[in-house]
Amino acid sequence: MNSTPTIAFAKFAAPQTATSRKGSVFVLAADDGGVSDAAKACDPAGTLARAFPAADFSGKFGSVVEVFAPQGTALDRLVAVGAGKASSLDDHAWLKLGGSIAASLRKAAEVAVVLDVAGAQAGGRQAANVAAGILLRSYAFDKYKTKKDKDNGQPKKPAKVTIHCADPSAAKKAFADEVAVIDGVLLARDLVNEPANALGPVEFAARAKELEALGVTVEILTEKEMKKLGMGSLLGVAQGSPRGARMAVLQWNGGKAKASPVAFVGKGVTFDTGGNSMKPASGMEDMKGDMGGAAAVTGLMHALAARKAKANVIGVIGLVENAVDGHAQRPGDIVTSMSGQTIEVLNTDAEGRLVLADALWYCNDRFKPAFMVNLATLTGAIMVALGQHYAGLFSNNDELAERLANAGQATQERLWRMPLGAEYDKLIDSKNADMKNIGGRYGGAIIAAQFLQRFVKETPWAHLDIAGTAMGSPPSEINQSWGSGFGVRLLDRLVRDHYEG
């Protein structure tokens, strides 16, 4: 995307020279409206000190004051961004400050950011987080727009952003890791935002195959191979579409040779009509994003490979289109999963769990992972329970659940643990098969998780229901896109904190 800024880092001395050239300078103001000496060097006439009272600016986090053509300089703009209380500036706060800066870039070509807040440590990691926030907020899915922003008939050029900080070399090193993860997030957003006519199962598999350029080993299983493996659950979902089904198996071997891998499994329904249990027309267009789990796994594998994570990681994504024609699965059909367990399909719109059943079993059976985490835009019920600010977390392992929740808090891709239990499990027992794919009216998100648990044996496992967070989630300082890329930063943090060595 041509609007993505370029990022560089420099010492504090550099912004002082900005007073003799054109461009925009961003400074950070503490919660009392005070700015640092480094910031004051860019404002020799004290323009901001006069502007703050007039704008009722006190340095509240994320608030912004702009001064155009400030006196005593040749700058185009001088912008103050409120940093709030120095004691509250954690990693995510610096990320959000970067997003606030990006929101005010406008059409600036040259931008200097003075990263200095009284009472706060602004080292290399903090500078890298600001840079990451700028990139995340600057994302826009505009590839299908034929009339883009233009200046004098020329496409808009990306801004050149220089972040002036105490330790630019440390910032550059930290940013190298951060940009790998951000690229993974942006890849996941791209995949979720793509229209279904451009991104079906075959096209998605081809996008996953591109990760080989980063050193990821990628295998693509076709319908013939999946049929031979006995994946009747996944293939039953796909049988109404002429576009076929695929399973992408991604391996990153960055850890010790004999170390057990960790595994991530994604639901990849590239479009979901609901099948014969047809969805209502209103909002069905959003079902192009029903592959948000597969997108997150693909983005995560990109991130881990790009930053050379010292871990062995498996990614498995089941790719189907849930469409309707004369061959489509019918309510009441009984299918046999790869596990050998039979499933009575009472609702063809409860299809994601059918895809994941075979993907989880395949992953567990082939790779014997230390744990499995699956991600899926699985149920509307989780949105009723949690809204769109938390994803649902279900797990058979307390340690894994706690580590996931902590990673969610650190990245602010937050999770809320939901219950599992024998009482819920009984609700999917079937008179005609080993199980049915829906339960009663209540507890729909839990019922789906209980279904999935039947395909993981005793392996530590967690299910993340990201229906409310992967697409159409509330805009934030670091995301204005319909597809959020939820899960990439969360799971990268999980691997980074506990499974690299």
Quick summary of this structure?
The protein is an alpha/beta fold. It has 16 helices and 19 strands. It has helices spanning 13-16, 37-40, 47-54, 91-103, 124-138, 168-193, 201-209, 223-229, 232-238, 292-306, 352-367, 381-386, 398-411, 422-425, 444-453, 488-498; strands spanning 6-10, 24-30, 64-68, 77-84, 110-114, 150-151, 154-155, 160-164, 217-221, 246-253, 262-272, 312-322, 333-336, 342-345, 372-376, 391-395, 415-417, 435-436, 461-465.
Question: Would you mind describing this structure in some detail?
Answer:
This protein is α/β, with parallel strands linked by helices and 501 residues long. Helix content is 34%, strand content 20%. The chain contains 16 helices and 19 strands. The strands form four sheets. It has an eight-stranded mixed β-sheet with strand order 9-10-12-11-15-19-16-17, with helices on both faces. Helix 11 (352-367) runs parallel beside helix 15 (444-453). It is elongated, with a radius of gyration of 25 Å. The two termini are 35 Å apart.
The number of E-state strands comes to 19
Strand order of the largest sheet: 9-10-12-11-15-19-16-17
Strand content: 15-25%
Computed CA radius of gyration, to the nearest angstrom: 25 Å
Global geometry: elongated
Mean pLDDT: 94
Largest β-sheet summary: 8 strands, mixed
Q: Structural class of the secondary elements?
A: alpha/beta
SS summary, helix count? 16
Compute the separation of the termini in Å: 35 Å
Helix content: 25-40%
Low-confidence stretches: 14-20
Which features would summarize this protein structure in a list?
single chain, 501 residues, alpha/beta, six-stranded mixed beta sheet, elongated
